[in-house]
Every structure is written in structure tokens, then in C-alpha cells.
């Protein structure tokens, strides 16, 4: 029977030899569990939980077919039977939970973070420190065999199929494009020669695994780099892959070194599904589309418009393992939506940490962060309904504690209510909606417009202080001038900002304020066409790699903005590794000036007086916005401690180095599971 609200999303997909129960793939993510002690047991729990949540098919993080293809030294590979045996724990757990799973075979090529990496040509990648060795013709042939062996072992391990990683700038992609393939032998030169390796791998894999085994090929449909594949070349390869025996083609968007955002939060939802739609006219095997599909209505629209046969969601399954089950049961309001911040997933992987999720710290920590009913339920007060307070209150209430959540404001959300106003950060609306629902469902007693005093809290068993932060006072002479505003004045109180602006402070808040005032007004929706235009992406794909000009072409800022930071070095150095460059590029392209290594002298009617490199300067401005850090709001802590109340500080009340929602929600969740 068709689902009333999402008929296309919940329609089975018949692959001939097997059937997928719906149209959702959990895309490949390297979690960091692959290399930790007890990692296979942890991965089994991680994948089984998503299988229970209703996803039709999952793909593992990348597994190397040989040691030269490692992502980093001693990372996961599938090269012998003892490896296959270890993987059985994953496949058995997934099958028991009613799911299907494919293993991704990934050869890193020049993206390998080790000195033995190999590539079609000895050209160093801009994002890794080691120059690769050029692969010999003999090594190319042995790599084809290694992929086939890996696929055969994956079948032996109980996987339902494999995904061959041919996109994102990894080895196969490096062979395909002229940008990285300068060879003159049978594996380079003409396009036919450059695509020989992926095609021979697919043929060899199909021959080895037989007919009844899923082969997904992750095809780079949009390289987003200079000298990438032309659209005609991509279509040609897709048709050849179909002939070679691929079951499904998955869409790959952008090399990791591309200077265009592909999955960050400012990318509109489903912004790249038009690329897959273009390919649907060319091949007859099922196509999967991907990137920033994080809610069922987005997936349904893409499928009903005929843009793809399946949708891939990766990070949304970190945020909520039950996204499919909740969609099927019309409980969308309960979905913990992925906000595409990258802070706890991709940023962690790049720092060699285990992945997690800002809005769901239990992701990849399922065996460690387990919720059990409290043996002795307590009466708990939580002061502050920001990220930390909301996370603690809902988690503790689910464990049968009696929780009262106080906030002086008229709405929940704390600092998220400012964050959601920043163009490109609209997903924070979803997080507030999620917590609003969880507060109601878990039975938290919510008391808004209530500024508590110590006496109000004396009869609680435990008090959790989650009041967040206050702006830090930079103590600049003349800062009481009426042209000086705080970030709260701008983002929360909507005070008017002049045409010439100085922003003092270049942390996350400084960048958010710059984003906010460099665009006209508050943004509530992301327009795909505007996004493509801003980042020089060619929707006609007439340009090679899909980029006409990687330098952005945004609308000019309505204001003249200068950002200042006291320290030397790169502006916004503490921003996320995978997103910081996007914020810097976006602001630079709106002609925002960035000045580092300054000392603030004074503020007066003329503007900001400062010293840089021993020289005094005066910047004439209409408005100066203070974003000079935060201090913790701990006001209630000492009086309550003195009264003998058991009191805890969490979130910004505990540490105010930056507005760190990842730390706040993680800390709050862990305390709620222990208390």
C-alpha cells in the first residue's frame, strides 16, 4: 500500500535479484570507529541502529583494497579472509535488524595521508602533505585485481554489495580527469584511456562476485575543479558503467579540494539533484542523488519530480537514526534534523577523532552513551533553555527524572535564536522545533518568562545551571558611544546598523554578524539558483567540471564592513576546518575587509582608532559592533552552593571560550545519562 504522504519515498525498488524496501540510501561516512579498539562491535551497533530505523540500504565508510590505498596509515582495508571474518559482526547485526549494507571500496590515491600514496601522476594534492608516486602500469593492473579481491571478500563477509568509489577526487577520479592524469601510456591521454581503470575494475568485480550482488558506482557528475570532466565525458562513462555491469549509479559532487561548498549548511537543500536529473535522461539503471537532503519532504519532492530513483542521506542518520521510521509514521516533528554544520562529523574525522553529531552526541557512541531508566528518580531544576539546557532536560526526563526547565525569555532556544537568523544557518529553526517537541513528549515542566532566584531552587534535588554566556567587555575607551552595539543588539534586538561598519572580534560570532549585515535583511530560505550563481557553478554544465569561475559572484554587500582581530595569523583561525574557508571566501567576495594584529586605542564620534604594525589609524564608521568573545553566566552557582544545593554548570555556563553548541549538547547529554 502506498504511503499517503510520501508515496515515492516508500515505494520499493526492484533490482531484479533483490528488492530495496524504500528509496533511501544511507551514504558512506568514515566514522573513525574503523580503527579504534573494539571498533567492529561499535560499528555493528551503529549500523544496526540505522537498519532498525528503516533505511533500505547503507554504505560503509571507505575500505581500502590494498595498503597503498589507505586513507591514513593502518586504516581499514579488506585484503584477506581474516579481514572478512571481522566484518561478519557488522553484516549479521544489520541483517538481523532487517537492513541491507554495502561495503565501499575506496583507494585514496593522492589523498592518502601517508608517504606511500600512489596516483596516476606524481602531482601533489593541495589538501595533503605528501607528494604521490606515479603508479607503474604493473601496479595499475594489480590494483584492478585488488578491487576484485576486496569485493569478493566483502561478499564472503556477508555484505549485500559494494560501492566502488569513483568520485570526490580519490584514485579512480584522479585517473579520469586531465587535471591529475598526465600519463602517456594506455591509462592516460585520450578519455577512453583515462576511464579504462574504473571500467576494468567494474568488469573484474562483476566477474568475481557474480550476477546477484549489488555494485554501486559513485560517479563524479560534477568535479567542481578546473580541467575536470566535461558533461559529455561523464555521460559517456555512465553509459559504459551500465554496460560493464553496475547495478546503481550514485552521484558524487565535487572533489575534496574544490573551492565550492557542497555539503555545508549554506548549501540549499537538494541543491545538486538537478545534476542527477540530467543524467536520468541518459541511462536506464537506477540513479541515486545526494547532498543536503535532510528531511522526508525534500526527498519526496526530488523523487516525485523524477530527479532520481533513490536519495542518499548520510549525516542525517548521524543526527537521527530513526529518520525513516519517523517519516513513515508521520512523526516528522520528532526528527532531529541534520543542520549540516560538519563540526562533530567531518571536522572530527580530519582531526583523527571518532565522529559524532552536534545535535546527537550518541551518534557513533551508541555502546557508550546508553539511556537507562533512573533507579532513584530525582526532582531536577534546569536554568536556561538554550542548547545545553534543552538537551539535558529532555534526556533526563526520558529517564523518569522530574524536570522543570526555567528560562527568563519568552521562547526556548537561547543563542540558537540568534544563530537561526544568519543567512545559511536557517537549519537551527529545525533544532528548536525538535527540542520543543521533545520537551512536550518527555513531560518536562517548561517555565518561560521566569527569571529564577536562588530561593526558587532550594527544594530541588539537583540544579543544572545552563544560563549560557554574556558578551565579554573589551574595555575600549569610548565604547559607551551610541554608535557602538553588541552582537545581541544586532542579532536579537534588531537595532539599526549604519552603512560603514567595524566589527571587533573575528571568532564565530564576528563572522556570523558579518554574514548577517553583509546581506540584505534576514534570510528565511535558500535559493538554489542564487547559490549556484554565487559560487560560479554552471547549471548548463557547459564548462569543464561544472565551474565557470570558482571565485564567487555574489550580490554586492549593502554595507562597507571591516573586521578586526587582535591576534596575528589567519582571520577566523578557530572556525571549523571544513567550513572556515567557506565563511572567509564568502565574506571576501562581498568585499569585507579583514584586519589582523591590531590594538584598539579608542572610539569617538569619528570612529575607531587603532594601531597596526606600530602605525596609528582611524577608521570612519557609522556603527561599531562588539563581538569580542563571551564570559560564562555563573551567577546562581555560588549562592546555591552556599545553600548546600547540589549544583552543576553545563554549556556556556561552564566554558565560554566560543559559542560551542557541540560541547554544550555533548556535555549536557552525558550528565543527563549519569545523574
TrEMBL record:
Residues 379-652 form the FAD/NAD(P)-binding domain. Pfam families: Oxidored_FMN, Pyr_redox_2. Its cofactor is FMN; [4Fe-4S] cluster. Residues 9-333 form the NADH:flavin oxidoreductase/NADH oxidase N-terminal domain. Keywords: Flavoprotein, FMN, Iron, Iron-sulfur, Metal-binding, Oxidoreductase. One of its GO terms (molecular function) is FMN binding. InterPro entries: Aldolase_TIM, FAD/NAD-bd_sf, FAD/NAD-binding_dom, NADH:flavin_oxidoreductase, OxRdtase_FMN_N. In the N-terminal section; belongs to the NADH:flavin oxidoreductase/NADH oxidase family. This is NADPH-dependent 2,4-dienoyl-CoA reductase. It comes from Marivirga aurantiaca. The lineage of its organism: Bacteria, Pseudomonadati, Bacteroidota, Cytophagia, Cytophagales.
